[in-house]
Amino acid sequence: MKKQLLVREVDETLVKALKQRAAINGRSTEAEHRLILEKSLRGPRKITLAEALTKIPSYGEDEDFSRRDDSGNEDVFD
Questions:
Q1: Rounded to two decimals, what is the model's pTM?
Q2: Fewest CB within a 10 Å sphere: which of 8, 16, 22, 39?
Q3: What are the start-end ranges of the E strands in 1-78?
């Protein structure tokens, strides 16, 4: 269910800035106001671990990340 929200006594410079931003984005002032409220209150969209892992850029070769102890031995868990 959608509700209405009335905001009173807003500084004139904020209203002008909202109208300018709405015009730049091709939206009505009301639509811009809704979008600002939604983004600020809902926060960023959460991503899954799989999405986060796919965003990690590929660097180096696999052997660049191999585990070795101080003596160069690769069997570090034995």
A1: 0.55
A2: 8
A3: none
